[in-house]
Amino acid sequence: MKPMIKSPLQIARASYQPKLPTALKGNVVLKEGAATESVADQADIKTLFPNTYGMPLISFEAGVKKEYPAVAAGVILSGGQAPGGHNVICGLFDGLKALNPNNKLYGFLAGPSGLVDHNYIELTKEIVDEYRNTGGFDIIGSGRTKLEEEWQYDKGTEICKKLGINAIVIIGGDDSNTNACVLAEYYSQKKTGIQVIGCPKTIDGDLKNEMIETSFGFDTACKVYSELIGNIQRDANSAKKYWHFIRLMGRSASHITLECALQSQPNICIVSEEVEAKNQTLNDVVDDIIKVIVHRAEHGLNFGTILIPEGLIEFIPAVKKLISELNDLLAHNEDFNALNTDEEKRQYVKGMLSPVSAEVYRSLPKGIAKQLTLDRDPHGNVQVSLIETEKLLIEMVAKRLAQLKAEGSYKGKFSALNHFFGYEGRCAIPSNFDADYTYSLGYTASVLISEGKTGYMSSVRNLTAPAAEWIAGGVPITMMMNMEKRHGKMKPVIQKALVQLDGAPFQYFAKHRESWGDEKSSYIYPGPIQYYGPTEVCDQPTRTLLLEQEK
Amino acid sequence: MKPMIKSPLQIARASYQPKLPTALKGNVVLKEGAATESVADQADIKTLFPNTYGMPLISFEAGVKKEYPAVAAGVILSGGQAPGGHNVICGLFDGLKALNPNNKLYGFLAGPSGLVDHNYIELTKEIVDEYRNTGGFDIIGSGRTKLEEEWQYDKGTEICKKLGINAIVIIGGDDSNTNACVLAEYYSQKKTGIQVIGCPKTIDGDLKNEMIETSFGFDTACKVYSELIGNIQRDANSAKKYWHFIRLMGRSASHITLECALQSQPNICIVSEEVEAKNQTLNDVVDDIIKVIVHRAEHGLNFGTILIPEGLIEFIPAVKKLISELNDLLAHNEDFNALNTDEEKRQYVKGMLSPVSAEVYRSLPKGIAKQLTLDRDPHGNVQVSLIETEKLLIEMVAKRLAQLKAEGSYKGKFSALNHFFGYEGRCAIPSNFDADYTYSLGYTASVLISEGKTGYMSSVRNLTAPAAEWIAGGVPITMMMNMEKRHGKMKPVIQKALVQLDGAPFQYFAKHRESWGDEKSSYIYPGPIQYYGPTEVCDQPTRTLLLEQEK
Question: Which residues does the record give as substrate binding sites (chains A, B) (predicted)?
């Protein structure tokens, strides 16, 4: 047998032609709306961004043929992978070449550091063609270097001047786009002539607002996780013997978990934002889980599924306080470090914590408590991301159920399995939705560049309509900003979008969750992403987006 | 928004009509081959199965219309879930109804215990239609009760007589089919008139032989795991900072791991059967891994993927011996149980083990050693399935790399992430291959029943050809049997198919693995199972099957 180089789907998928909004298919004319304001702190933001504040919204419409001077652009992938990143670059490349065949595109390597360290390649048709409709960020690599210092910006100017680059496109999340905005302002102030355009990327779905309906990658990642959750639910419903505790990526917001719940209808789904709003303790969360488990056990059903957002414990006010006290208490604490046994350390910590935090500490399973005190990062901080919240909850639930059993108020059997899904979805082959959306975002960026715009985020809206009806344009990044405290200082940043408890997706969930948790299972089995076949199977946006845009 | 009851794919997939071999599409004539022999221990097997030994192979061909008397069948799902189980039942139902509209099908509930406890439902068109082409075993549930005692068989006779059931179809793995064969023999001896037909099920792929080319579910499960492995590889190749240690289901054989490696081409793949054949120690396995990690680090690549079969440590002769010694040593050992601290227990165990096993015990990370001595099942046995082998290997690899770094022979960075995939694939929506194969297996069973056969396994062969050319028929289960020691007694059992080191799949792997592990990545990204679209994307059998049948 001949060695395989690519899978059949990789080969077939290479020839997919992403759908574009009608306005981008031919000649484009740019329409400017009214001047904009930032979402909050207008005076501060205006002062900080004198050159890029208040610019109008931009939309594109079909127009007459227009000649654009040749430009060169450089593109950067910033932060965690999200399905569709390659198609942003493909759309950008195709758009630039369509607007002027002499346009050039460079890729800075391994994230923002490529701009600073002058690591780059020219992106040719041969290279770009290899990556059409594929997952991953491997075309130029990504990285987490933050562009925050003037010397970095100046190193960027240097390489742009050398290569004749007129514009930089930064594909990233809220932080990277905040930095893109600062960079745009700096380059305007310094009159470098270098434009900066942002693109909204993150599987977490927390970069969105009135003009950015969703970040790319959220659709595909949630569909991959939902496929797996559905499969596990079918297994639970067949084997009838396990409770599956499934933790899902997404530390700062619960959009992924909520969307997966809307797609698969598990018995229980925890939303961090609700836990925080209700000021719940970890025991409260456990009690909520217990209620459903006990109810189902009364009907002979000792199995089910529970979705848990990765960031949960940081949203529990009491645990947050405990972690903060531990960080203050144990960083460079020689007395503590001198103690010999785990038990001595445990007692020492208990004695030093505030009474409330000591109580929370006592309530934690020993393994977790130990992890909080012993596994610390180089700065002495608790490594929250290492805590396997799903195992923590299994342990606490099992303990509580054992008590209830002893008291006679629970007669079921409890066996649990744990799962964590994250890396399985960040580099999946983008869904048709994400393939089309990202290609359109990249194409839109090429027009913004050719029109000489800077400080804008590429925006494609009306996303629950067919792609032909999508509205492409640009949104001033300053419009999304407010002032927030970061590392003790007030900074201009893009507002992070958490799950809104009064928003349609959460409201739909809140209305139906009781029935999902009862003895009649409401499991849905989404199955794997389909790229071919009926449009209702292949081209659906997320439930979150459908609910948010429902008339 | 209206509540969702089913996903778009569930709705679309319901109307898929599985492909059948041409011979089964119209009237069928049964062809008998020569008499058969068991694979080994012919005299013993013949003595134990006087009524069902030596029966001929059966194949079906297109024939003339034949009238069959009405029959009733009962179907049982036995053991772990595998994609396609529902379609076996659908094929069986459709076949029975096509052969005689008065035929009936009952389903025994929750596995073999349904037969014994007289729990059953009649399977009607309305019920069956709800489950066409779906994953899971929830139509009638499954269970792990073993049919091994005569009183169980007699309880079965009782309910079959009551319902007028002429035949029982047992859908299960090697053990369940062994029991099906014993049951067939018993019913023949007792002249109950109840036939027994088996169906080859298991995602593990270890029920196969000359006449059974593959067990159903293996195709779909491996494709789901390979999708995830591919996604993780794309992530590894983009982020360039993690080694992903991925453990895959399959305790008794490494077919799943090997097939996933053939589909995704990871940097490293461990095959338990090879480890055993080479008499490797755990340190040898670690050294093999280290070689690849160090080589890639020398080229600046501090990332990669490693596939690990779930059953690995039970295949390592030295660990197997250690576990066996621990089981003998610690079961009901009051001296040990009276010890107070973990350290005392550790020392006690070390003192009692053979020198060789004590050395292995010392070489294990403390957490694992503790798990081996403390986490024991109710019979006092080590719970091997709880051991997270991927974490064990990460710990041992990290330790070894730290030594090499201190010695100056390794300069890389090692960060690892762990994954375990099993429950994610057992109930996936069956691939076209599994949907067609299982439907054909069920349909074949209906003909075997109507032809009055017993002690046969439903067999569909020539599986790498288009479904129309598949060869349907029956194989005497005694043909697959030999004598093996089980719980100290010689028993007739179906030979379990392990990975053959001289077989084509392993040989292909062995030939290419070095290049997969080197600095040029050979990753393949299979993507999710597709049900629509080009046939080369949607209808491919496994690489294992393609290699095994390559001319």
Answer: 202-204, 241-242, 249-251, 310, 423-426
Any A CB within 8 A of B450 CB = no
B218-426+502-548 and B8-58+70-217+430-486 share a CATH fold: yes
CA distance B497 to chain A (A): 23
Which segments of B are annotated as binding site for Mg(2+)?
Answer: 174
A224: chain B residues, CB-CB within 8 Å? 231, 528
Q: Does A530 touch chain B (CB under 8 A)?
A: yes
Predicted local confidence at residue B330, as pLDDT:
83
Fold of A8-58+70-217+430-486: Rossmann fold (3.40.50)
From the CA of B64, how many Å to the nearest CA of chain A? 38
Cβ <8 Å between A9 and B428: no
- Which residues of chain A lie closer than 8 angstroms to B238, CB-CB? 81, 136-138, 141-142, 427
- Answer yes or no: is pLDDT of B377 > 80: no
User: Is the overall model pTM greater than 0.90, yes or no?
Assistant: yes
Among A residues 355-414, those touching chain B with beta carbons less than 8 Å apart? none
**A518 carries a ligand binding annotation:** no
Measured distance CA(B532)–CA(A532) in Å, rounded: 6
Check if the beta carbon of residue B149 is closer than 8 Å to that of residue B155: no
Give the 3-state secondary structure of residue A457.
strand
pLDDT for A317 = 92
Q: Where are the domains of chain B?
A: 8-58+70-217+430-486, 218-426+502-548
What is the H or E stretch that residue A373 is in? Answer: helix A366-374
- The verdict on B78 touching A (C-beta cutoff 8 Å) is no
In this prediction, residue B13 carries a pLDDT of: 97
Across residues A368-393, what is the average pLDDT?
81
CA A98, distance to chain mean position in Å, is 31
Instruction: Compute the mean pLDDT over every residue in chain B, rounded to the nearest whole number.
Output: 95
The b-or-e profile of B195-220 (16+ CB within 10 A means b, else e) is bbbbbbbbbbbbbbeebbbbbbbbbb
Residue of A nearest to B7 (CA): A526
- For position B7, what pLDDT does the model report? 97
Q: Check CB contact under 8 Å for B530 and A527.
A: no
User: pLDDT tens digit string along A487-512?
Assistant: 889 999 999 999 999 999 999 999 99
Q: Is the confidence at residue A260, as pLDDT, over 80?
A: yes
Q: Which amino acid is at A89?
A: I
Closest among A253, A368, A231, A255 to A305, alpha carbons compared? A231
Q: Compute CA distances A138 → A7, A121, A131, A299, B488, whole Å.
A: 17, 13, 9, 50, 55
Quote the pLDDT of residue B365: 86
Look up the CATH number of domain B218-426+502-548. 3.40.50.460
- On whether any CB of chain B is under 8 Å from the CB of A134, the answer is yes
User: Which one from B94, B175, B204, B206 is the annotated catalytic residue?
Assistant: B204
Residues A357-361 have a mean pLDDT of 92
Q: Report B:141-160 residues touching A (Cβ under 8 A).
A: 141-142
- The token duo for B116 is 């014994």
Strands B120-122 and B104-108: antiparallel
Sign of CA dihedral B238, B243, B248, B252: positive
Nearest by CB to B1, from A4, A227, A547: name it.
A547
> Is residue B204 among the annotated active site residues?
yes
Tokens 């509930």 belong to B109
- Cβ distance A135 to B540 less than 8 Å, yes or no, reads no
Q: How far apart are CA A293 and CA A287, in angstroms?
A: 10
Interface residue A265 vs chain B (CB under 8 A): yes
Q: pLDDT (tens digit, 9 = 90+) per residue, A203-225?
A: 999 999 989 999 999 999 999 99
The burial of A5, by beta-carbon neighbours within 10 Å (0-12 exposed, 13-18 middle, 19 or more buried), is given as exposed
**In this model, does residue A471 exceed pLDDT 90?**
yes
Other C-beta atoms closer than 10 Å to the C-beta of A148 total 14
